[in-house]
Amino acid sequence: MSDLEEKIAKWLNTNTFHHSEFWDLKELVRAKEKAGVSISLCIPTLNEENTIGKEIIVFKSELMDRYPLLDEIAVIDSGSTDRTLEIAASYGADTYLSADILPNHGFKPGKGENLWKAIYQLKGDIICYVDADIKNIHSKFASALVAPLIYRQEIQYVKAFYDRPLAVSNELRASGGGRVTEILVRPLFSVFFPELTALMQPLSGEYAVRREVLEALPFPIGYGVETSHLIDVYQAYGLQSFAQVDLDKRVHRNQSTASLGKMAFGILQSFLNRLKGYDLVTDMPEMNGIFRQLLAEGRRYEQRVLSIEEEERPPMITLPEYRERHGR
Amino acid sequence: MAVLKNTSQYEMQEILFPLKVHDLSQVFCGKLLSSGFFPPTFCIFCPMGVIVGNVLSGEKVLSIREHLRSIREILLANIVMAAEIPAPTGDEGNLTRFLSDRFTEFGLNNISRDEAGNVAGVLAGSSGKRNLLVAAHVDKIWADSEDHTVSVGVGEMSGRGIADNALGVAVLATLPLMLESLGVELESDLILLGTTKSLGRGDLGGMRFFLENSDWEVASALCVEGIDLGRLSYSSLGMARGEIVVTVPEDAETPDLAVAGAIPVLTEIMERLLEMSRRDYPNTVIRTGTMEAGSGYNVPPRGGRIHFEIRSTGAGKVKRMEREITAMVEAVSSQPDVTASVEMIAHRQPGNLGKRHPLASTAQRAMRALDIEPTVEPSVSELAALLDQGIPALTLGITKGQHRHSPEETIQLDPIFDGLAQLVSVLLFMDTTDFTN
Questions:
Q1: How many residue contacts between A and B have a Cβ separation below 8 Å?
Q2: Roughly how many angstroms between the first and final C-alpha of chain A, as a whole number?
Q3: What SS3 class is residue B28?
Q4: What are phi and psi for residue A146, nearest 5 degrees?
Q5: CB proximity B152 to A under 8 Å
Q6: What are the residue boundaries of the structural domains of chain B, listed by start?
């Protein structure tokens, strides 16, 4: 076994958890109080009226009313045209329009924008992000993610993984990453950041992070936010700062291959930016941010040209408004 | 001071109900009862020493409703969880485990799952001199493989089995917290029971097992159904369910059967069932829930089945009808090329508490205070088993809903608190009432 494989194996042994290890919520709340940390849950949304209500009900009941683990539940919305915000508010979430937060800095459409503004808006020492499109929501989607941060001081960033394959032919199951993970991100990590291949699902939208780490991260506003985070946190703190938690199963809407193509393009841009930023490659050509797809209908062929610019927000700690609000 | 002598408790109840409750302390005097949330003016004690009951004013029922809103999120989360855990009849283990966990978290006593799979927990009362039962069936009509995802909208939730009976199960799971939040400590021990094998071929198996094998003597009981608010059942119909199975051979010589398989036989049986049903309608009816045969356009089905239910106010009539159907099926089966049989799979005895029973009247009072129009209807569910054992019992619905037994089964959320207020009001009355007098 190579040193790398040995290191990953050790990390998998010590920093990969199953949610059932954190079943005792009473104990978790006790440990949280002892650690003296506050926890905010952030749900970024854009037209999620079908699933948001249930998420709020489950998190509020289980992790605020029954077990006071979360100090706030906030929905940060990119401008939904459906009843997402109305439903979220009716079940007790704090709701914000992303455009209303830090208005002097403008509004950029994208999930990363909401995650970035959450650092300013929310109060917690730990912020847990959970996507709004989970059909089989359970309190473990938040509690099991914050647990490693509560119990282990050296851990900074906790990722979720899930989705068991329907059939398993060996004793070991496949990592279960999504299509973009397996055909883009994992190959890129294998070449440039092999230790990060230890993460089962680097693109999962559920993760919990300490504020002091989050506030120092630049934020791509689009698809590349998760990949960039992993690279930046890895460069600053190393593999030992990560943990991952098996949440068993996540049911969500499936995306078309064309949508995944756009996602992959955004991730690739962020990834290449990071390579450049960390001087890992030289002589990179200028990236134009144009994603080209071809559509075929019978013998008619059509080009689709999409502009996908992976803009970045600066680390939140560099904003005077933030430093003033949070006393940094 | 008015003193009523030689008056039975039920008769007194009839006298009391027309009066406004705040008048009662002027009509009667005696020891007052009270418990936490409730001022003592609403508790009365007859000078003869007979406890008439803890009759709540309309105002108090409304205040219970408003107070219960404080546990809204916990109740709603329990509904979601109870709805998303599959519990087909006979395989309810995951859902009873959920209930058992909730009972454990609340610190109930005697939490157990019995041989029938029922789950029970006991909330100890201050004196424990009586045992009250609140029950909800946990089984659903949906198979494990169906999508049980719940959708939550503004003021409503929908999903398979959410009304029948995830809401009932959630009420059971949340009831101890409701009482705690109201500051109520019951005198009686309260048994919370999630029953299995209620539906279809289950034939009330869970409730029957509990009543036959439990050491707890139940003084009075409530059955909780998700919908519909206003439902008030204090009687049960005599009922029998059966399945008729028809087969014809592939090489049938009878021309009709050769071209249409079992279908002509099924329609003949169907016509005869309708004929029988017409004779004593509406006192006795035969409902047909399923008639199935075949799977395509051009292949005559070799078999088919009919599921039916006989309902009647009289047990003897159900039995007679059952015998008639058996004889009719035998006659059909004697025709060339036809094999037909009938199997009876569930039975209920009729029972009736009577509309003047104080339990029924109290429920109606609570409903009126909440502006709920009572819909009195006989039941064929758990209530039948309870009345059969001579236990005073009611079935109450908790909220309004739509699309029962469809994938889009929906419940409205706000009326739930009306349903809970009526439930708690009736429970408090049961707690201070001795129905054996």
A1: 50
A2: 45
A3: coil
A4: -85, -20
A5: yes
A6: 9-55, 65-236+350-431, 238-348
Q: How would you class A105 by CB atoms within 10 Å of its CB: exposed for 0-12, middle for 13-18, buried for 19 or more?
A: middle
Which one of A52, A55, A57, A67 would you mutate to disrupt binding with B, by most B Cβ within 10 Å of its Cβ? A57
Angle of CA points A63, B111, B346, to nearest 5°: 110
Q: Is A62 on the interface with B (CB under 8 A)?
A: yes
Q: How far apart are CA B376 and CA B383, in angstroms?
A: 14
Q: What is the DSSP letter of A194?
A: G
Q: Strand B220-227 vs strand B393-399: parallel, antiparallel, or unpaired?
A: parallel
Question: Residues A103-116: what's their mean pLDDT?
Answer: 93
Determine contact: B77 vs chain A, CB below 8 A: yes
pLDDT tens, residue by residue, B131-177 = 999 999 999 999 999 999 999 998 999 999 999 999 999 999 999 99
CATH superfamily of B65-236+350-431: Zn peptidases (3.40.630.10)
Question: Under 8 Å CB-to-CB from A138, ≥6 apart: which residues?
Answer: A58
DSSP B228-270: -TTEEE-EE-EEEEEEEEEE--TT--SHHHHHHTTHHHHHHHH
Q: Which residues contact A294 (CB under 8 A, 6 or more apart)?
A: A301, A302, A303, A304
- Residues in A closer than 8 angstroms to B152, CB to CB, are 52-54, 57, 87, 91
Residues sharing a CB contact under 8 Å with residue B175, sequence separation 6 or more, in sequence order: B123, B134, B190, B192, B423
Query: Which residues of A fall within a CB distance of 8 Å from B80?
Result: 54, 57-58
What length does chain B have?
437
**By three-state DSSP, how is residue B397 classified?**
strand
Q: How confident is the model over A150-186, as pLDDT tens digits? A: 999 999 999 999 864 433 444 444 445 578 888 999 9
pLDDT tens-digit map of B3-47: 333 344 444 444 444 443 333 333 333 333 334 444 333 333 333
Q: Kindly report the nearest CA distance between residue B189 and chain A, in angstroms.
A: 25
Cα distance from B395 to chain A (closest Cα, Å)? 28
Interface test with B, best of A58, A59, A134 (most B CBs within 10 A): A58
Cβ distance of B149 and A92 shorter than 8 Å: no
Integer Cα distance of A217 and A318 in angstroms: 10
Contact A83 B77 (CB under 8 A): no
Q: Kindly state the helix (H) or strand (E) to which residue A228 belongs, with its residue range.
A: helix A225-237
The answer to whether the CB of A159 falls within 8 A of the CB of A204 is yes
What is the Cα–Cα distance from A229 to A208, expressed in whole angstroms? 12
Of all residues in chain B, the one with the smallest CA distance to A59 is B77
C-alpha to C-alpha distance for A270 and A75, rounded to whole angstroms: 26
Question: How many whole angstroms from its chain centre is CA A47?
Answer: 18
CA-atom Rg of chain A in angstroms: 20
Domain ranges of chain A: 3-276+305-326
Where is A25: in which H helix or E strand? helix A25-35
Which residue matches tokens 């992000």?
A: A129
Task: Please give the single-letter amino acid code of residue B159.
Answer: G
Nearest CB partner across the interface for B80, out of A50, A58, A87: A58
Report ipTM (2 d.p.): 0.74
User: Measured between alpha carbons, how far is B126 from B314 in angstroms, rounded to an integer?
Assistant: 41
Given CB atoms, is B153 within the 8 Å cutoff of chain A?
yes
A62: chain B residues, CB-CB within 8 Å? 77
Q: Find, among B42, B39, B38, the residue nearest to B28 by Cα.
A: B42
| Helix, strand, coil % over all residues of chain B, rounded to 5 | 40, 25, 35
The yes/no answer on whether domain B238-348 falls in CATH 3.30.2130.30 is no
How many residues are recorded in chain A? 328
Q: Which residues of B touch A249 (CB under 8 A)?
A: none
Task: Classify domain A3-276+305-326 at the CATH topology level.
Answer: Spore Coat Polysaccharide Biosynthesis Protein SpsA; Chain A (3.90.550)
